[in-house]
Write a structure and sequence with these properties.
Helix content: over 70%
Structural class: mainly alpha
Low-confidence stretches: none
Strand order of the largest sheet: 1-2
Distance between the termini: 42 Å
Oligomer: single chain
Largest sheet: 2 strands, antiparallel
Length: about 300
């Protein structure tokens, strides 16, 4: 059971990062963006390409950061992927979502997000193929923390968890200690009133896409480091990410973090009583339970 808890915390770390970007978009732009999970795939593959380019241009950066499988090249690739994925999210908004949004068709935004998810997924599959990819071909050996019960932890897992927590704390500081954070909350509560008080709505929306895309990229990379990269990973992660967002409460960054860990723990603890093939249903059951018992989520508030 302890091993399942550890695995659940690890899973929750990258689900939380993915849910933060989704909850920001849903709260400010007021639509369920089903293509958000595909940004995780986009970020994971962007890091794969950037890692190969950096390694080719500067082979000295291919040195591993022992005991991790992470190299200096991949570390730089993570940063580049965050930027590229954030910019990609902005471009997608400009080309698709903004045009639909300006016509006031909220339901059409949801359908457009479904379409974008399919487009991104198939473009990735067309370019990279359908076979799984790995950031490192070397076998990562786990460290035995205990023999009774047997508890195994990989150094990469510790890195993923700590890095995710650092990013979450950094975002907390931005939202709670900066003018941008205050502006973001103002736009989320009342866009018209925020504009009257001098908040640039267009720039705020761009910033939301940049943050959401960047965090989605990191979530996808961390998932790839823990598992493998496949073109349909966004399809597999969309339900857990939405579950984390709904459980935590739409619009609450802290709720998204907590929701991500709850979903991660629930999915891994369910393996104790359910066959592995049934665990994908756990996020759906969590969504149903929250919508019945607390429709606004753990930290969400009722909105008009």
């Amino acid at each position: 059971m302890i091993q399942n808890v550890i695995d659940g915390v690890l899973t929750g770390s990258y689900l939380s990062l993915g849910a933060i970007g989704l909850t920001l978009v849903m709260h400010i732009l007021r639509f369920a963006n089903f293509s958000h999970a595909e940004l995780l795939s986009l970020g994971a593959y962007a890091a794969l390409v950037c890692d190969a380019l950096v390694t080719a241009l500067a082979p000295v950066l291919a040195i591993k950061l022992a005991p991790l499988s992470l190299t200096w090249a991949l570390g730089l690739a993570i940063v580049l992927s965050m930027v590229l994925t954030g910019l990609s999210a902005v471009v997608i908004d400009r080309l698709v979502f903004r045009r639909v949004r300006e016509r006031g068709a909220e339901l059409s935004m949801v359908f457009a997000s479904f379409g974008m998810a399919l487009v991104i997924r198939n473009i990735i599959g067309l370019i990279f193929g359908l076979s799984p990819k790995l950031y490192s071909q070397e076998i990562a050996f786990a460290t035995v923390l205990s023999f009774d019960p047997l508890i195994l932890v990989k150094p990469d897992q510790v890195f993923v968890l700590l890095a995710a927590l650092v990013l979450m704390f950094a975002l907390h500081l931005v939202l709670s200690r900066t003018t941008f954070g205050y502006s973001l909350r103002a736009v989320a509560e009342n866009p018209a009133l925020a504009q009257i008080n001098g908040v640039n709505l267009a720039r705020t929306i761009v910033a939301v896409w940049l943050i959401g895309g960047g965090l989605a990229a990191v979530a996808g990379i961390f998932y790839g480091m823990s598992h493998q990269i496949i073109p349909v990973m966004g399809r597999d992660l969309v339900l857990p990410i939405f579950a984390a967002t709904i459980v935590g409460g739409i619009g609450s960054v802290y709720g998204a973090v907590l929701g991500g860990f709850i979903v991660g723990l629930a999915g891994n603890l369910a393996l104790l009583v359910l066959p592995a093939g049934y665990t994908p249903s756990v996020p759906f059951l969590l969504i149903l339970a929250v919508l019945i018992l607390r429709p606004h989520g753990l930290f969400g508030e009722a909105r008009a």
